[in-house]
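Input (structure):
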Protein backbone atom coordinates (compact mmCIF):
# COMPACT_ATOMS: atom_id res chain seq x y z
CA UNK A 1 0.00 0.00 0.00
CA UNK A 2 1.77 3.12 -1.16
CA UNK A 3 1.29 6.85 -0.85
CA UNK A 4 -1.89 8.07 -2.50
CA UNK A 5 -3.93 4.93 -1.82
CA UNK A 6 -7.61 6.05 -1.77
CA UNK A 7 -8.33 4.59 1.66
CA UNK A 8 -10.07 7.66 3.10
CA UNK A 9 -13.23 6.79 4.93
CA UNK A 10 -12.73 3.06 5.21
CA UNK A 11 -14.68 1.54 8.07
CA UNK A 12 -13.32 -0.99 10.57
CA UNK A 13 -15.49 -3.63 8.96
CA UNK A 14 -13.79 -3.26 5.59
CA UNK A 15 -10.27 -2.59 6.95
CA UNK A 16 -9.20 -6.18 6.47
CA UNK A 17 -10.58 -6.47 2.99
CA UNK A 18 -8.28 -7.85 0.36
CA UNK A 19 -5.95 -4.80 -0.17
CA UNK A 20 -4.96 -4.68 3.50
CA UNK A 21 -4.89 -8.45 3.87
CA UNK A 22 -2.56 -8.60 0.88
CA UNK A 23 -0.27 -5.94 2.38
CA UNK A 24 -0.03 -7.93 5.61
CA UNK A 25 0.63 -11.18 3.77
CA UNK A 26 3.37 -9.60 1.64
CA UNK A 27 4.88 -8.01 4.76
CA UNK A 28 4.98 -11.37 6.53
CA UNK A 29 6.74 -12.84 3.52
CA UNK A 30 9.21 -9.93 3.47
CA UNK A 31 10.00 -10.45 7.16
CA UNK A 32 10.69 -14.11 6.52
CA UNK A 33 13.05 -13.25 3.67
CA UNK A 34 10.83 -14.48 0.83
CA UNK A 35 11.96 -12.92 -2.48
CA UNK A 36 8.39 -11.95 -3.41
CA UNK A 37 7.69 -10.29 -0.06
CA UNK A 38 7.24 -6.55 0.30
CA UNK A 39 7.68 -4.28 3.31
CA UNK A 40 4.38 -2.80 4.56
CA UNK A 41 4.23 0.91 3.70
CA UNK A 42 1.12 2.75 4.88
CA UNK A 43 2.30 6.18 3.73
CA UNK A 44 -0.51 8.60 3.00
CA UNK A 45 -3.40 6.22 3.75
CA UNK A 46 -6.33 6.46 6.15
CA UNK A 47 -7.30 3.32 8.04
CA UNK A 48 -9.23 4.82 10.94
CA UNK A 49 -10.56 2.11 13.22
CA UNK A 50 -8.61 -0.68 11.50
CA UNK A 51 -8.49 -3.94 13.54
CA UNK A 52 -4.77 -4.73 13.67
CA UNK A 53 -4.59 -6.35 17.10
CA UNK A 54 -1.78 -8.91 17.46
CA UNK A 55 -0.61 -8.28 13.88
CA UNK A 56 3.09 -8.49 13.06
CA UNK A 57 3.97 -5.03 11.74
CA UNK A 58 7.64 -5.13 12.65
CA UNK A 59 9.63 -2.63 10.57
CA UNK A 60 6.46 -1.31 8.91
CA UNK A 61 6.36 2.29 7.64
CA UNK A 62 3.56 4.60 8.83
CA UNK A 63 4.20 8.00 7.29
CA UNK A 64 1.65 10.84 6.99
CA UNK A 65 -1.17 8.38 7.61
CA UNK A 66 -4.30 8.22 9.76
CA UNK A 67 -5.07 5.34 12.10
CA UNK A 68 -7.44 7.11 14.49
CA UNK A 69 -9.14 4.69 16.88
CA UNK A 70 -7.36 1.78 15.19
CA UNK A 71 -6.78 -1.33 17.29
CA UNK A 72 -3.07 -2.20 17.62
CA UNK A 73 -3.50 -4.11 20.89
CA UNK A 74 -0.60 -6.52 21.44
CA UNK A 75 0.63 -5.76 17.90
CA UNK A 76 4.32 -6.13 17.05
CA UNK A 77 5.62 -2.75 15.86
CA UNK A 78 9.26 -3.30 16.70
CA UNK A 79 11.59 -1.11 14.63
CA UNK A 80 8.60 0.45 12.86
CA UNK A 81 8.97 3.95 11.39
CA UNK A 82 6.19 6.37 12.31
CA UNK A 83 6.41 9.89 10.88
CA UNK A 84 3.59 12.45 11.20
CA UNK A 85 1.15 9.61 11.84
CA UNK A 86 -2.24 10.28 13.44
CA UNK A 87 -3.02 7.60 16.02
CA UNK A 88 -5.36 9.60 18.21
CA UNK A 89 -7.53 7.42 20.47
CA UNK A 90 -5.89 4.28 19.09
CA UNK A 91 -5.77 1.10 21.15
CA UNK A 92 -2.18 0.10 21.85
CA UNK A 93 -2.44 -1.98 25.02
CA UNK A 94 0.58 -4.29 25.34
CA UNK A 95 1.81 -3.26 21.88
CA UNK A 96 5.57 -3.58 21.32
CA UNK A 97 7.31 -0.57 19.75
CA UNK A 98 10.83 -1.48 20.85
CA UNK A 99 13.49 0.35 18.79
CA UNK A 100 10.75 2.10 16.81
CA UNK A 101 11.16 5.67 15.56
CA UNK A 102 8.28 8.06 16.29
CA UNK A 103 8.60 11.53 14.80
CA UNK A 104 5.75 14.06 15.11
CA UNK A 105 3.26 11.29 15.92
CA UNK A 106 -0.08 12.20 17.51
CA UNK A 107 -1.08 9.70 20.19
CA UNK A 108 -3.43 11.98 22.11
CA UNK A 109 -6.10 10.10 24.01
CA UNK A 110 -4.71 6.71 23.07
CA UNK A 111 -5.24 3.70 25.35
CA UNK A 112 -1.84 2.07 25.71
CA UNK A 113 -1.42 0.44 29.12
CA UNK A 114 1.67 -1.80 29.29
CA UNK A 115 2.96 -0.56 25.93
CA UNK A 116 6.67 -1.22 25.38
CA UNK A 117 8.94 1.46 23.90
CA UNK A 118 12.30 -0.04 24.79
CA UNK A 119 15.15 1.84 23.04
CA UNK A 120 12.57 3.72 20.97
CA UNK A 121 13.38 7.21 19.65
CA UNK A 122 10.55 9.72 20.05
CA UNK A 123 10.64 13.35 18.96
CA UNK A 124 7.89 15.99 18.84
CA UNK A 125 5.36 13.27 19.67
CA UNK A 126 2.26 13.90 21.82
CA UNK A 127 0.51 11.68 24.38
CA UNK A 128 -1.93 14.25 25.81
CA UNK A 129 -4.53 12.65 28.09
CA UNK A 130 -3.31 9.18 27.05
CA UNK A 131 -3.52 6.02 29.15
CA UNK A 132 0.08 4.83 29.53
CA UNK A 133 -0.16 3.02 32.85
CA UNK A 134 2.69 0.54 33.35
CA UNK A 135 4.24 1.68 30.04
CA UNK A 136 7.89 0.72 29.59
CA UNK A 137 10.44 3.21 28.20
CA UNK A 138 13.82 1.62 29.15
CA UNK A 139 16.75 3.23 27.30
CA UNK A 140 14.29 5.25 25.20
CA UNK A 141 15.13 8.73 23.89
CA UNK A 142 12.37 11.36 24.17
CA UNK A 143 12.86 14.88 22.80
CA UNK A 144 10.26 17.67 22.84
CA UNK A 145 7.42 15.24 23.55
CA UNK A 146 4.24 16.21 25.39
CA UNK A 147 2.39 13.94 27.81
CA UNK A 148 0.36 16.53 29.73
CA UNK A 149 -2.50 15.00 31.74
CA UNK A 150 -1.34 11.52 30.68
CA UNK A 151 -1.86 8.56 33.01
CA UNK A 152 1.61 7.08 33.55
CA UNK A 153 1.24 5.44 36.95
CA UNK A 154 3.82 2.69 37.37
CA UNK A 155 5.58 3.56 34.11
CA UNK A 156 9.26 2.65 33.78
CA UNK A 157 11.85 5.10 32.38
CA UNK A 158 14.98 3.15 33.35
CA UNK A 159 18.09 4.74 31.77
CA UNK A 160 15.90 6.85 29.45
CA UNK A 161 17.15 10.15 28.01
CA UNK A 162 14.43 12.83 28.18
CA UNK A 163 14.87 16.42 27.04
CA UNK A 164 12.46 19.37 26.78
CA UNK A 165 9.40 17.19 27.40
CA UNK A 166 6.18 18.25 29.12
CA UNK A 167 4.55 16.01 31.73
CA UNK A 168 2.47 18.78 33.31
CA UNK A 169 -0.53 17.42 35.19
CA UNK A 170 0.44 13.83 34.40
CA UNK A 171 -0.05 11.01 36.90
CA UNK A 172 3.40 9.45 37.39
CA UNK A 173 2.63 7.82 40.73
CA UNK A 174 5.09 5.01 41.49
CA UNK A 175 6.85 5.66 38.17
CA UNK A 176 10.49 4.54 37.99
CA UNK A 177 13.30 6.76 36.64
CA UNK A 178 16.36 4.80 37.79
CA UNK A 179 19.41 6.11 35.96
CA UNK A 180 17.35 8.35 33.67
CA UNK A 181 18.81 11.61 32.34
CA UNK A 182 16.15 14.34 32.18
CA UNK A 183 16.88 17.86 30.97
CA UNK A 184 14.74 21.04 30.88
CA UNK A 185 11.45 19.14 31.22
CA UNK A 186 8.20 20.20 32.90
CA UNK A 187 6.38 18.29 35.64
CA UNK A 188 4.17 21.18 36.78
CA UNK A 189 1.33 19.91 38.99
CA UNK A 190 2.28 16.34 38.12
CA UNK A 191 1.64 13.50 40.57
CA UNK A 192 4.75 11.51 41.49
CA UNK A 193 3.72 10.01 44.81
CA UNK A 194 6.09 7.18 45.70
CA UNK A 195 8.03 7.61 42.46
CA UNK A 196 11.55 6.14 42.28
CA UNK A 197 14.01 8.72 40.95
CA UNK A 198 17.15 7.37 42.62
CA UNK A 199 20.32 7.72 40.58
CA UNK A 200 18.53 9.86 38.01
CA UNK A 201 19.57 13.29 36.78
CA UNK A 202 16.89 15.99 36.56
CA UNK A 203 18.79 19.10 35.48
CA UNK A 204 16.88 22.36 35.06
CA UNK A 205 13.45 20.71 35.38
CA UNK A 206 10.25 22.36 36.63
CA UNK A 207 8.28 20.58 39.39
CA UNK A 208 6.23 23.59 40.55
CA UNK A 209 3.21 22.54 42.62
CA UNK A 210 3.93 18.85 41.98
CA UNK A 211 2.57 16.23 44.38
CA UNK A 212 5.57 14.03 45.26
CA UNK A 213 5.16 12.68 48.80
CA UNK A 214 7.48 9.78 49.65
CA UNK A 215 9.33 9.99 46.34
CA UNK A 216 12.86 8.56 46.44
CA UNK A 217 15.74 10.74 45.18
CA UNK A 218 18.65 8.74 46.60
CA UNK A 219 21.88 9.92 44.87
CA UNK A 220 19.85 11.84 42.26
CA UNK A 221 21.13 15.06 40.67
CA UNK A 222 18.47 17.79 40.85
CA UNK A 223 20.74 20.73 40.12
CA UNK A 224 18.95 23.93 39.07
CA UNK A 225 15.54 22.27 39.17
CA UNK A 226 12.54 24.07 40.66
CA UNK A 227 10.19 22.60 43.27
CA UNK A 228 8.26 25.76 44.18
CA UNK A 229 5.33 24.92 46.44
CA UNK A 230 5.71 21.19 45.72
CA UNK A 231 4.61 18.54 48.20
CA UNK A 232 7.80 16.62 49.06
CA UNK A 233 6.82 15.33 52.49
CA UNK A 234 8.66 12.18 53.52
CA UNK A 235 10.94 12.20 50.46
CA UNK A 236 14.41 10.67 50.59
CA UNK A 237 17.19 12.97 49.29
CA UNK A 238 20.02 10.90 50.78
CA UNK A 239 23.23 11.61 48.87
CA UNK A 240 21.40 13.76 46.32
CA UNK A 241 22.92 16.78 44.58
CA UNK A 242 20.62 19.79 45.03
CA UNK A 243 22.96 22.57 43.89
CA UNK A 244 21.07 25.77 43.04
CA UNK A 245 17.76 23.91 43.20
CA UNK A 246 14.76 25.91 44.43
CA UNK A 247 12.48 24.51 47.14
CA UNK A 248 10.82 27.84 47.91
CA UNK A 249 7.56 27.29 49.82
CA UNK A 250 7.88 23.54 49.32
CA UNK A 251 6.53 21.11 51.92
CA UNK A 252 9.43 18.95 53.10
CA UNK A 253 8.20 17.66 56.45
CA UNK A 254 9.95 14.46 57.46
CA UNK A 255 12.21 14.43 54.39
CA UNK A 256 15.73 12.97 54.64
CA UNK A 257 18.87 14.86 53.54
CA UNK A 258 21.75 12.67 54.78
CA UNK A 259 24.95 13.67 52.91
CA UNK A 260 22.97 15.70 50.35
CA UNK A 261 24.77 18.55 48.57
CA UNK A 262 22.79 21.75 49.28
CA UNK A 263 25.15 24.44 47.97
CA UNK A 264 23.03 27.45 46.89
CA UNK A 265 19.79 25.49 47.31
CA UNK A 266 16.88 27.82 48.10
CA UNK A 267 14.59 26.86 51.01
CA UNK A 268 12.94 30.27 51.36
CA UNK A 269 9.53 29.80 52.94
CA UNK A 270 9.91 26.00 52.85
CA UNK A 271 8.56 23.76 55.62
CA UNK A 272 11.44 21.58 56.86
CA UNK A 273 9.77 20.54 60.11
CA UNK A 274 11.14 17.22 61.32
CA UNK A 275 13.44 16.90 58.29
CA UNK A 276 16.21 14.39 59.04
CA UNK A 277 19.90 14.16 58.26
CA UNK A 278 20.52 17.91 57.92
CA UNK A 279 23.74 19.32 59.34
CA UNK A 280 24.65 22.85 60.29
CA UNK A 281 27.09 22.94 57.37
CA UNK A 282 24.39 21.94 54.88
CA UNK A 283 21.99 24.64 56.04
CA UNK A 284 24.70 27.30 56.09
CA UNK A 285 25.44 26.56 52.44
CA UNK A 286 21.73 26.81 51.57
CA UNK A 287 19.39 29.77 51.61
CA UNK A 288 16.72 30.02 54.28
CA UNK A 289 14.41 32.93 55.13
CA UNK A 290 12.29 34.27 57.99
CA UNK A 291 9.41 32.21 56.58
CA UNK A 292 11.36 28.94 56.52
CA UNK A 293 10.26 26.37 59.11
CA UNK A 294 13.45 24.69 60.31
CA UNK A 295 13.67 21.02 61.39
CA UNK A 296 13.16 21.86 65.07
CA UNK A 297 9.96 23.77 64.29
CA UNK A 298 11.39 27.26 64.70
CA UNK A 299 11.39 29.95 62.05
CA UNK A 300 14.48 30.83 60.07
CA UNK A 301 16.73 32.01 58.79
CA UNK A 302 19.11 29.35 60.03
CA UNK A 303 21.76 30.66 62.44
CA UNK A 304 25.05 28.90 63.16
CA UNK A 305 25.13 26.99 66.47
CA UNK A 306 21.38 27.38 66.95
CA UNK A 307 20.76 23.63 66.87
CA UNK A 308 17.76 24.23 64.62
CA UNK A 309 19.03 21.54 62.21
CA UNK A 310 17.94 18.86 64.70
CA UNK A 311 14.41 17.52 64.16
CA UNK A 312 11.79 18.25 66.81
CA UNK A 313 10.87 14.57 67.19
CA UNK A 314 13.45 11.79 67.46
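Output (sequence):
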Amino acid sequence: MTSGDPAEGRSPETALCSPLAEVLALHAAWLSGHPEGERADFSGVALNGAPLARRNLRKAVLRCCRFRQADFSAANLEEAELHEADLREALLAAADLSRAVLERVNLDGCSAPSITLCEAKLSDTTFRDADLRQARFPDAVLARCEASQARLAGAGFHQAKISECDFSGADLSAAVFYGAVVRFSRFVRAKLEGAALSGASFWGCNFRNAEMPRARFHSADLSRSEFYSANLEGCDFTGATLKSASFARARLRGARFDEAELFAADFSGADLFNARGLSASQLLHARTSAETVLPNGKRGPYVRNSGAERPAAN
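Notes: The chain has two helices and eight strands. The longest helix spans residues 18-31.
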